[in-house]
Design goal:
- The protein has one domain.
- The protein is 45% helix and 0% strand.
């Protein structure tokens, strides 16, 4: 992601530095949500609430090692 969006990820030296940010509920406006390309064809399957729950309930605890 540092290569794709360097100005956003420059402040994160490693994955561990992202954990606290990932633990917070994301704030997407409708236009931002529509631009998430890798989900475009699966929007009926992966809602914003579903993905938020997965990040906060699975990804964050996994990165924390709990």
């Amino acid at each position: 992601m540092k290569n794709l969006q360097p100005n956003i990820y420059a402040t994160f030296p490693n994955v561990e530095a992202l954990i606290d940010d990932l633990a917070h509920k994301p704030q997407f406006n409708p236009m931002q949500w529509a631009k998430i390309m890798y989900l475009r064809t699966k929007r009926d399957r992966f809602s914003q609430a579903h993905l938020t729950a997965a990040v906060m309930g699975i990804l964050v605890p996994g990165l924390k090692g709990t």
